[in-house]
Amino acid sequence: MFLVAFSVCILLGALQVPVTYVKAIAGWYRERLGLALGTAMLFGGIGVGALPSISAWLISLVGWRTAYAYLGVLVSGVNLLSVTLLMREPRHADAFTHADRLSSTALLRMSGQLLRSPAFGFLATTFFFVSVMVGAGTWALPIVLNDRGLTAQSSSSIMLVVGGSMTAARFFFGILLDRVDPQRLSAVVFALASVGIGMLAVNASVTGIVIAGVLVGVALGSEVDAMAFLSARVFGAENLGVVYGVLGFCFSLGLGCGPAVLSIALRISGTYGPGFAIAAIAGGIASACVILAPLRSDPSDCLRIPV
User: Fold this and answer.
1) What is the pTM of this model?
2) Tens-digit pLDDT profile for residues 134-162
3) Which domains does the chain have, with CATH numbers?
4) Cα separation of 143 and 121, whole Å?
5) Tens digit of each residue's pLDDT (9 = 90 or more) over 35-71
């Protein structure tokens, strides 16, 4: 029963990828899209950084069953208030809602064309591999610290580092997206995170874990901004729901594969080193793909997918 309930939680959590509010933001803010995305996603980093420590404290106080019940009520209440009070479409929503009015056949045809698009293929590859890297990092860092002798609550504090870095990255990376070439900017951030994870493959010291936590947090925050920004700029608002939805699937799949890679590497080798090396290679692939992608990020020259 526990496995069933846990699987349902994972499924429902995966469904909360930011497709809907990213599409809303892209419809409302055409000129300063990077700033709008960074501001809107800012508090996600706060949650990632704070909730693990809060969860550990609640579990130690009332037990894991009651703690999960409290957390479920909190998340449900915030989500309901957000949907009820904040989710609105702009008045100039003709192109914005174009894909919403398409028939299921047309949407399937559009999806097939997107999958054959070189630009989409590069983006999907980029965000899958960078998610493998950050998924491995965010899963493994507290466990490695715990293996170093720290308590569970102290080990989970590394997520404060990840969350703080992610929070800052989402805001400042969003601002930079409006001013700097988004492909080069994303490539540099992903490459730095790859270096940080690669350092752990050589020597997983506490200092190295903290540095890697900062770089992984920056990559995690930047990845979400870059995925939304490039999807809107390259494919246009009318195609954003389909594009971002499939890219979100690649993102979630990568996050799940990262911990699996580390677990398999640990079982085979007895250490996390090979797993961290694979995660670092994944980050390098992501950096290369985003810089080589044949994208056009001028909002007046969006790639239109005929339907």
Assistant:
1) 0.71
2) 888 877 777 776 666 666 566 666 777 77
3) 14-293 (1.20.1250.20)
4) 34
5) 777 777 777 666 666 777 788 888 889 988 898 888 8
Measured at the CA of 100, the angle between CA 96 and CA 106, to 5 degrees, comes to 120
